[in-house]
Automatic annotation (TrEMBL):
GO terms for cellular component: membrane. It comes from Bacillus thuringiensis serovar vazensis. GO terms for biological process: methylation. It comes from the Bacteria. InterPro entries: Sulfotransferase. This is RNA methyltransferase. One of its GO terms (molecular function) is methyltransferase activity. Keywords: Methyltransferase, Transferase.
Amino acid sequence: MKNINQKFLEYIILHKDRIPHFHKDFPLILFWSHRSGCTALANWFFFQIGLFPEAKKYNDFIHYYEFWVYKNNPNYIQAVHSGLLEAKKHVCKLVRNPYTRAVSSFLLLADNPYASPQWDSIRKCFYNDKHSKQGISFKQFLYYVQTLGSNSQVIDMHFSQQYVQGEEAFIQSYIPLEDFNKQIPKIENEYGLIKSDLTKLTSSGHHRAHKMVYTGSYAELSITDEAFPRFPTYASFYDKETMDLVTEIYAKDFEMYPYTKGIF
């Protein structure tokens, strides 16, 4: 691949810490986004290159090994850089329906220690006091993301849009998370990869989908309210206003990825 600006390539690789999965002997380069099946994809990647047991032994949370060990190699970024320029590997990206992803991003605020700095920012925005104990609803969360901008420098990586400006110069195909369990076996067959047990690799302690059973109208109920169940269904967070907000906020994801506005 010729005539690629080096700063542009670096931007694609490093944007929001979404460093692609790469190995010199693995036939694909895998792009991904936070809250879009990134744990399942990382599990599968490390399984395919023979490092899954080592990664899980290091820490059950696969991303610690991913960033603190595997991608912390001083030569890793240059290897990804060279791999993209050589254009000998198939480049794909795991993507997710923006409507379900927006809910997943919001629910990060429910019980994740990672979200403490984000709560500070959110409470400063809404209540002018980062020490406030007040929470926010899904609808308020969307207005927060809209205010900061889904592609801004200041928005948290878990809340920002999936699309990275210019990624289409490298990415050849997209894997919808909703079709993960069908697409991965096809990829394994096509490239002669090891047959994986996706039941094991897609199991994660921080996944909530199986707990999301409460129906109702939860678009405007604060996530810190005692009446907020653990957890509502995806559909329970949507009324016309929240649907329109997600459609507008993540417009670029709808434009670039195989999803239809108004359907989740």
